[in-house]
Amino acid sequence: MRIASKFIAAVVALSFAFNLVWEYLHLPLYTGYEQLGSGWPLILWATSGDVLYTVLITTFVVLCSGEVGPWYIRHYAALGVGGFVVALLVEYKAMALHTWAYTTAMPTLFHVGLSPLLQLTTLVPLSVFLAQRWARS
Question: Terminus-to-terminus CA distance in the chain, angstroms?
Fold first, then answer.
């Protein structure tokens, strides 16, 4: 149980740190989000959502695989695919509801920003991988 709580805390902490930096660096690629706020409150709000998605995707993979560890490449691939799908759905919803838009500097894929797709596709498995290593130490 101690390893599990250490793992969860590490996933949350690492995910928060990685996504906070990502959101800060990539905010200039967005526009039209003013109704959501601006500056650090907006970055913290977006980061909190990213952490929630990371925890939900991780929980889903754990429940589907029935394994908490050791994990193999297929588990990390599932986390990456889960991150990609969640990012795609979040971005499509935001575009449909006009929650935000992209500046011309944002490269797109499937009519959504490449930045958020890469963000959850890479940071979810990275956060979990490092959290597992830390929890075992």
Answer: 15
pTM, two decimals, is 0.91
Q: What is the pLDDT of residues 1-34, one digit of tens each?
A: 566 788 899 999 999 999 999 999 999 999 988 7
Residue type, 115: S
User: Which residues 6+ apart lie within 8 Å of 42 measured at CB?
Assistant: 27, 33, 36
Q: Are 58 and 11 in contact (CB under 8 A)?
A: yes
Which amino acid is located at 126 in the chain? Answer: L
Q: What is the DSSP string of the chain?
A: -HHHHHHHHHHHHHHHHHHHHHHHHHGGGEES-GGG--HHHHHHHHHHHHHHHHHHHHHHHHHHH---SS--HHHHHHHHHHHHHHHHHHHHHHHHHTS-EE-TTS-EETTEEHHHHHHHHHHHHHHHHHHHHHHH-
For 122, half-sphere exposure in the C-beta direction (CA atoms, 13 angstrom radius) is: 9
Tens digit of each residue's pLDDT (9 = 90 or more) over 52-64:
999 999 999 999 9
